[in-house]
Amino acid sequence: MKKRLGPSDRLYPMPCPLVLGGTMEHADALAVAWIAIGGATPPTVVMALRQSRRTLELIRETGEFTVNIPRAADAAVVDYFGIVSGHDHDKFAESGWTLEPASVVSAPLVAECPYNLECRVLTEVDQGGSHVLVIGEIVESHAEENILDPTGAKVDVELLDPLVYIAGSREYRRLGEKVADAFSIGKTVKPE
Ligand SMILES: Cc1cc2nc3c(=O)[nH]c(=O)nc-3n(C[C@H](O)[C@H](O)[C@H](O)COP(=O)(O)O)c2cc1C
Fold first, then answer.
1. By the 8 A CB rule, do 23 and 29 touch?
2. Edge-to-edge, what's the strand order for the sheet holding 171-173?
3. So where are the chain's domains?
4. What is the value of pTM for the model shown?
5. How close is the Cα of 68 to the center of ligand 1, in Å?
6. Is it true that the peptide bond before 162 is cis, omega within 30 degrees of 0?
């Protein structure tokens, strides 16, 4: 038996990166759970931001932003970036977190986040509701060397240990154990 829960804005789980706008001289960032990859060629990211966000104002000024994946151990700082606004706080000065220059865009990376995407805004979609959709092209990515797998080309997710957000219960979690190989385990399911 399933119970109807009505229209929902929840997926389980959701990522919880810090999205940053601005420059090395003046930046702001916020926690964003409503974010996903939008395509592969070119690689894009799509996120839902409330019009009132200070970070959105800075993204609009330069047309650039970065997506910064935090470690699970840093939930407190990420939550702080998600409950305080750059309209009346300097979140980097107050948290002690720092910026480092990106390679391609003017928006810096969050130094304490081990995986980062550099993005350029492609378009904004006004849905006529609470949030605007910002779609960006991912023009570069960075990973700390100590979270890479032995090939050196891919992130080892256990080493990354990313923060995950659970809507509804409003919890931060970390990922659990590996269950199978994707694009592979499905081959063991044979038609009758
Ligand atoms: C776990 C979590 C997830 C959030 N996800 C979003 C989101 O997807 N979109 C959004 O606009 N705000 C989201 N917020 C709220 C913003 O992060 C928050 O309002 C922040 O203070 C805005 O900062 P700013 O005004 O400095 O940009 C989230 C907050 C938390 C704690």
1. no
2. 14-15, 164-166, 171-173
3. 14-188
4. 0.98
5. 14
6. no
Report how far ligand 1's centroid is from the alpha carbon of 146 (Å).
29
* Ligand 1 pocket by Cβ (under 6 Å): 16, 28, 30-34, 48-50, 53-55, 79, 82-87, 165
CB contact set of 23 (below 8 Å; sequence gap of 6+): 62, 106, 107, 108
As a whole number of angstroms, the distance between CA 88 and CA 171 comes to 26
Q: Rounded to whole angstroms, how far apart are CA atoms 118 and 49? A: 18
Q: Which fold has domain 14-188?
A: Pnp Oxidase; Chain A (2.30.110)
Output the CA 29–ligand 1 centroid distance in Å: 9
* Residues sharing a CB contact under 8 Å with residue 131, sequence separation 6 or more, in sequence order: 34, 48, 49, 50, 51
Q: What is the block-wise mean pLDDT of the chain (192 residues), using blocks of 10 residues?
A: 97 98 98 98 98 98 98 98 98 98 98 98 96 98 98 97 97 98 95 72
